[in-house]
Amino acid sequence: MSTPIATLLLPDTASTEAAGARLASALRGGMVIAISGELGAGKTTLVRGCLRALGWEGAVKSPTYMLVKEYPLPSLYFFHFDFYRFADPSEWETAGLADCFRDDSICVVEWPERVAGLLPLPDLQLTLSHPDDPRLEGRRLALAATTRNGERCLAAMTAVS
Description:
There is one protein chain. The longest helix has 12 residues, at 13-24. Helices cover 24% and strands 25% of the residues. It starts with a strand and ends with a helix. The protein has helices at 13-24, 43-53, 91-95, 148-158; strands at 5-10, 32-36, 68-72, 77-82, 105-110, 124-129, 139-145. Helix 1 (13-24) crosses helix 4. It is an alpha/beta fold. A seven-stranded mixed β-sheet has the order 1-7-6-2-5-4-3, covered by helices on one side.
């Protein structure tokens, strides 16, 4: 299967949250979404939009110091991981987080590169970055689907309403 890809320009925080909301519409249990980007790129903002669309009303903060934050939703579990603090991929083994990756959960992973190849294959890889043109505001969001579920997410996120 070839890897379908797309790029979105997100001019502000509201558009980043809206992209997360579009992603939410295609999520299903058992999916893994990997989100890369430098500090402050908008990874948690995108996750916040996703959770709001799924009905979560509480606070959504980066779980940098906790490693993982669980959001129990009516029909599934939503795990938000942040591996920024991992200095060595072997910390994945000792943290005991593999049990979160199951059929009744959605796992969204910030800084997946810090656990180098130990994660299950993500359905969708998202990368947030600053636009190449310094005169442009906002962020650029690159999307790459690696599974059929990921393709469904990519289609939902790039649909023009």
